[in-house]
Amino acid sequence: MQGLVVEVKDLTVAYEKKPVLWDVDLNIPKGVLMAIVGPNGAGKSTLIKTMLDLIKPVAGKVSFWEQPYNKQRKKIGYVPQRGSVDWDFPTDVLDVVMMGRYGAIGWIKRPSKKDKALSLEALEKVGMLAYKDRQINELSGGQQQRVFLARALVQDAEVYFMDEPFQGVDTKTEKAIIQILKALRDKGKTVVVVHHDLQTVPDYFDRVTLLNKKIIATGTIEDVFNDANIQSTYKI
Ligand SMILES: Nc1ncnc2c1ncn2[C@@H]1O[C@H](COP(=O)(O)OP(=O)(O)OP(=O)(O)O)[C@@H](O)[C@H]1O
User: Which parts pass through the membrane (predicted)?
Assistant: First the structure.
């Protein structure tokens, strides 16, 4: 294994005292394309949000390259679940993508020609170039998802977390997105994706984490993506 990107230790998370994640241990190595799968309510989104410091755990610890999230945030990209972001201010698609070049403070800075070129290139990759001047709140959920993906791409992070990036996108776009994710992986980036469709797991991913409040199994597709583990995750 070529070094760890993320280390999750003894993580327990609760909403209003009701635990939704129990004692989760998870190591994510560099350069993998990993799915997190599990039934509705298994805690997949909660796990990602806790890793990214958006939810405080009851117990346990998350480190990125052996440091807390806030020390490494520039190297960490996040594409939230569709519909989870409310755009109550007017901003166009290209601006949303260019925000990825700077993070929040960068609003004040003028984007350079290079920032703009990279952002247009990313929009082209996700098939959204034609929408560059549209208001973000006038797009469908699936289109917004692709814009967020473009924003994550221009951020040039080392590790990416994506919460159901295929939700509400058509098959052609899904295939295009997975090609982008595989290319990131091939460049040595680490990509973690909450995913719903078990059928496509072996084709899309090289590792999988099966989650249902606890980690049922985590590892390579070959080692852990088998009937026994799937059955204990989905209780079927
Ligand atoms: N903000 C919240 N307040 C209270 N309970 C919550 C909150 N968010 C999630 N939950 C509960 O925590 C559990 C885990 O939710 P989570 O969204 O992490 O699951 P998930 O595996 O991502 O589900 P899905 O596949 O349906 O998106 C669920 O029982 C859910 O109802």
Answer: none
